[in-house]
C-alpha cells in the first residue's frame, strides 16, 4: 500500500513539474516577467514541489501565487 502511495506521489509531482516547466518555456515569454518576488513564482513552485512533494509543495505554490499581486508583498521569499 505504501509503495502505491509513493508511486502516486512521485507521478503527481512529475506532472506538477512538467506543468510548471511548460509555463516557464512557452507561456512566460509571451506574458512577460511580472513576478514581484525572487525567486519567481514558477521557480518557487519547482523548488517547493521538489522539496516537499506535490501536496504540500503545491499548497505552498498556490499560497505564493495568491500573494503575488500589486497589493501583496515583494522581495526575497525563498521556499521555507
UniProtKB/TrEMBL annotation:
<protein>
    <recommendedName>
        <fullName>Putative membrane protein insertion efficiency factor</fullName>
    </recommendedName>
</protein>
<dbReference type="GO" id="GO:0005886">
    <property type="term" value="C:plasma membrane"/>
</dbReference>
<keyword id="KW-1003">Cell membrane</keyword>
<comment type="similarity">
    <text>Belongs to the UPF0161 family.</text>
</comment>
<keyword id="KW-0472">Membrane</keyword>
<dbReference type="Pfam" id="PF01809">
    <property type="entry name" value="YidD"/>
</dbReference>
<dbReference type="InterPro" id="IPR002696">
    <property type="entry name" value="Membr_insert_effic_factor_YidD"/>
</dbReference>
<comment type="function">
    <text>Could be involved in insertion of integral membrane proteins into the membrane.</text>
</comment>
Amino acid at each position: 500500500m505504501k509503495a502505491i502511495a509513493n508511486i502516486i506521489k512521485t507521478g503527481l509531482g512529475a506532472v506538477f513539474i512538467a506543468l510548471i516547466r511548460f509555463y516557464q518555456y512557452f507561456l512566460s515569454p509571451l506574458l512577460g516577467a511580472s513576478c514581484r518576488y525572487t525567486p519567481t513564482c514558477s521557480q518557487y513552485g519547482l523548488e517547493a514541489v521538489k522539496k516537499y512533494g506535490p501536496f504540500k509543495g503545491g499548497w505552498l505554490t498556490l499560497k505564493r501565487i495568491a500573494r503575488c499581486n500589486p497589493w501583496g508583498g515583494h522581495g526575497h521569499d525563498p521556499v521555507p
